[in-house]
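Please supply some protein, with fold tokens.
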Amino acid sequence: MGRLNLIFILNELRQKNLKIFTILDFQRIFNLNYESAKKTISRYVKKKIFTKARKGLYYLTQDSPFDFLIANKLYQPSYISFETALSFYGIIPETIFEIISATSRPSREFIVNSLKFSYKKIKKECFLGYLPKKIKEETVLIAEPEKALVDFLYFVALKKREFSYERIDLKKIKKKKLIEYAKCFKNKKLLELVKNLYAFS
């Protein structure tokens, strides 16, 4: 097959709503072998038509996906959690200039277009409490409010995070669900932190 027409490529990717894609995705859509797909992508990365998120993962530069979707695809399995989700839900007042996710894999960090994407490892048996949510026309995996708070407090219990009780808006949190998620971690310090949340509120 000869060189693919750029307009055809962009139309196909947009039609399939594939703003972020792998070399394998590209192969399948355009019926190319691996090397041809890789060379075509590389050519358009140089022309800034595509942006490389990490090795083997790319997105449309002019129609870039929502940061939460990039986070989901950048390192899998993962879901948006911690301060990023808490800020999104309005449970903490701060705007967080970092996309923080939970993962069952080793912790990692990536920088994509000057934005930091952090992945914090949690126990496999506690890798739950997230759901697909449509945000900015993209379906992304994000922690439920209670699970985002528990993930965060677990890292406070491990002394890897700091917080003050008055920052947390508990009106958006279901206490029973919060306690259930906290029990999953089997961590006494975490359960104390959850209990203290309500004592200080």
The chain has a mean pLDDT of 94. The radius of gyration is 20 Å. Residues 34-46 form the longest helix (13 residues).
